[in-house]
Amino acid sequence: MAASGKLASFRLPPLPTVGELIKLYNLRAEKQLSQNFLLDLRLTDKIVRQAGSLRDAHVCEVGPGPGGLTRSILNAGAADLLVVEKDTRFIPGLKLLSEAAPGRLRIVHGDILTYRLDRGFPTNISKPWEGDPPNLHIIGNLPFSVSTPLIIKWLENVANRTGPFTFGRTRLTLTFQKEVAERLTASTGSKQRSRLSIMAQYLCTVHNCFTIPGRAFVPKPEVDVGVVHFTPLVQPQIQQPFQLVEKVVRNVFQFRRKHCHKGVEKLFPEARRVELTQEMMQQADVDPILRPTELTIPQFRALADAYARLCAHEPALLTYEFREELRLKHVARKSNTASSPTLTDAPSGVAESSATPLKK
């Protein structure tokens, strides 16, 4: 009885439904902000369960909107919930929730892409990286437009142990378009294997939890939605700086249907491309005719290590970008074309006089 009484104390008092709040505050999902509301509390409860136990936990919710997922987090027993909401229209409804859960809900009106999450929670919740994850979770039903740049930013934070990962191996439970969720969790050889697969999986254990049909959202998006859970690894599978790894992976996958050496070639200036590509592939001991989707993370590790050794010997390689070389060539061609004289540019009569012999 005592346990059930304690659990009951976590739950919110009777409140207007999320649908009633939407009507009360005349809220509409903004298409340009990729907003889609999830009103079914059974589904928001299911998302929250993927995070694990939230009893007495610290939680950051990204883009709470009308507060459906917020209610599920509070009902799960979170002691301290920080919500970061960019859209001012949702603030009054969130304040109503805050009043119903005194001392448990903090509201920040801001952009999650720029908000300093490392300042959002007390330092005493930190855990050593090599130990268990801290009792801190990031949960969010992300707008489609922000989901990929945000997870790339957080993966870089994982690699550098910055942002929300200054507290330790903070866990993430987030929604993505189904296609993006499949890319994040794709295994070697699958059609969905991509740059995102490698960048996520070399740093985290990534689990595609379940799929929410698009019809569950208001308004209904054209795609279904996947819920993905991330737990940072104690040791990344590739021991190189994030930017170097991202550069290698990005170049390899820019020709995803071709042999992997085609992408590796673009890491090097044209004048030395063949020589350095051959050297890198030999050092990494990776079959150059494998396709990018067929490469394992250990093989990407070998490629990144080989590239790092070449860059240590020739630091200018690290800043080389294939597309920038292409751009400069294009500018040079345009400049040469503009400055080359043509017959129409010549003074009147010059072409004719040079072709007509002088009369004696």
TrEMBL record:
SUPFAM superfamilies attached to this UniProt entry: S-adenosyl-L-methionine-dependent methyltransferases
The Ribosomal RNA adenine methylase transferase N-terminal domain, residue ranges: 43-234
UniProt KW keywords: DNA-binding, Methyltransferase, Mitochondrion, RNA-binding, rRNA processing, S-adenosyl-L-methionine, Transcription, Transcription regulation, Transferase, Transit peptide
Spans through the membrane: none
Domain of life of the source: Eukaryota
EC number(s) reported in the record: 2.1.1.-
Molecular function per GO: DNA binding; mitochondrial transcription factor activity; RNA binding; rRNA (adenine-N6,N6-)-dimethyltransferase activity; S-adenosyl-L-methionine binding
Composition bias type Polar residues, residue spans: 334-360
Residues engaged in binding S-adenosyl-L-methionine: N36, L38, G63, E85, D111, N141
Region (Disordered): 333-360
GO annotation, cellular component aspect: mitochondrial matrix
GO biological process, one term: transcription initiation at mitochondrial promoter
Family to which this protein belongs: Belongs to the class I-like SAM-binding methyltransferase superfamily. rRNA adenine N(6)-methyltransferase family. KsgA subfamily.
PANTHER family xrefs: DIMETHYLADENOSINE TRANSFERASE, DIMETHYLADENOSINE TRANSFERASE 1, MITOCHONDRIAL
Designated name of the protein: rRNA adenine N(6)-methyltransferase
